[in-house]
Design goal:
The protein is of the alpha/beta class. It has helices spanning 66-74, 99-105, 117-120, 127-138, 143-156, 162-166, 175-187, 205-222, 233-239, 257-262, 267-274, and strands at residues 21-32, 40-51, 55-59, 82-89, 92-93, 110-113, 193-197, 225-230, 242-247, 250-256, 325-328, 331-333. The chain folds into two domains: 7-109 and 193-280 and 288-355, P-loop containing nucleotide triphosphate hydrolases (Rossmann fold), CATH 3.40.50; 118-190, no CATH class.
Length: 355
């Protein structure tokens, strides 16, 4: 995309891959009206694309609009939510579809891995039949065929003793094993797009790495597109092809992973990088944090939403919202006073190889 006519903060644009996009999000907005509060602008003018075999990471603090945008894609927001814009999955417009029509796409075309597998699995039901039930809901297969499919999926996600695990309950699985079960369930109908919403947040570092390597390997094998929702810049640097940084419901920076971490423009992105724990810091050094609090999304913001927390803010930052400008081809940012460039950790420009 070139020129200023269609900045990707408000419209979809080609990603770093030349393949046809699996997901195209254009000018997506989500509004809520909670009791006792004004209208909450959870997502405003979001746009990006995800191509087959590629991973796009949506990064930001809690409350930045990451999860709301992913649930809007899945059609899992409450009825009170007001969704506008365009979400196209392999050319099919999802926005505005009836709940029944959306159910035909969920599972078959797009699937989601949620943050807490313990909440996603029925504790009173054996794990295998839970997934078999999902398979039979989308595919015309017998109970025996569904069981065989689940055992194959358990093998695919590297669960040991898959036939034994089929008949066990969720409490008999560790956190990492439960997350593998959720991945198996998400893959049960071979979706073209997999949304991983903070899929490794509740796991220890070692298990987190195993799950991410598993997803990378499955993507390489199956060729699916992955949308990764996370607050972890380290994961994005290691596994994503492109990064979308969100703040207060809007895109504030977007680029290919190497370009973003090698030449940061937006002070908010730099602040997130600075808050990442590092092994080379002295013991008992206080963990860095982004100062201040995120804005109230029910209040009208006239200028840059990050201005009250930004060390570079000046007069016009509070008066006018900065445009989404292109720094280099494919690298967009929204800031009146951008950084001149900030190098990320060595190796951040290389996508993690699948094991």
């Amino acid at each position: 995309m070139t020129g200023a006519a269609s900045a990707p903060g408000s419209a979809a644009s080609p990603g770093p891959d030349d393949g046809a996009p699996v997901l195209e999000v254009q000018d997506l907005s989500v509004r809520f009206r909670p009791r006792g509060r004004g209208q909450v602008h959870a997502v405003s003018g979001l746009g990006y694309t995800v191509a087959a075999g590629r991973t796009v990471a949506i990064i930001g603090e809690s409350g930045s609009g990451k999860t709301a945008s992913s649930r809007a894609i899945m059609g899992l927001l409450p009825r009170s939510a007001q969704v506008s814009g365009s979400v196209r999955l392999s050319g099919t417009e999802l926005t505005g579809l009836s709940p029944r029509a959306l159910r035909r796409h969920r599972g078959n075309d797009v699937a989601m891995i949620f943050q807490d597998p313990a909440r996603s699995l029925n504790p009173t039901m054996r794990v295998g039949p839970q997934i078999a039930e999902a398979v039979r809901a989308h595919q015309k297969v017998s109970r025996a065929e569904a069981r065989e499919r689940v055992i194959e999926l358990f093998q695919l996600v590297r669960l040991s003793a898959p036939e034994q695990r089929y008949g066990e309950y969720p409490h008999q699985f560790s956190g990492g094993m439960r997350q593998r079960v959720m991945i198996a369930m998400a893959l049960s109908c071979s979706p073209r797009l997999l949304i991983a919403d903070e899929a490794t947040t509740a796991l220890d570092v070692t298990t987190q790495a195993q799950i991410m390597r598993l997803l990378a390997g499955l993507q390489e094998r199956l060729g699916m597109a992955i949308l990764m929702i996370s607050h972890d810049l380290g994961l994005a640097a290691s596994y994503a092809d492109e990064v979308v940084v969100m703040y207060a419901g809007r895109t504030v920076e977007r680029a290919a992973v190497g370009e973003l971490f090698g030449d940061v423009r937006m002070p908010y992105t730099s602040a997130l990088l600075g808050a990442v724990p590092r092994l080379d810091r002295a013991a008992h050094t206080p963990l860095p944090a982004v100062p201040g609090r995120p804005p109230d999304l029910s209040a009208e913001v006239t200028g840059c939403a990050f201005a009250p927390r930004c060390p570079r803010a000046a007069g016009r930052c509070a008066e006018r919202r900065p445009p989404f400008a292109e720094h280099t081809p494919g690298h967009w940012y929204a800031c009146w006073y951008p950084l001149s460039g900030a190098a990320a950790e060595p190796g951040a420009d290389r996508k993690h190889s699948a094991e």
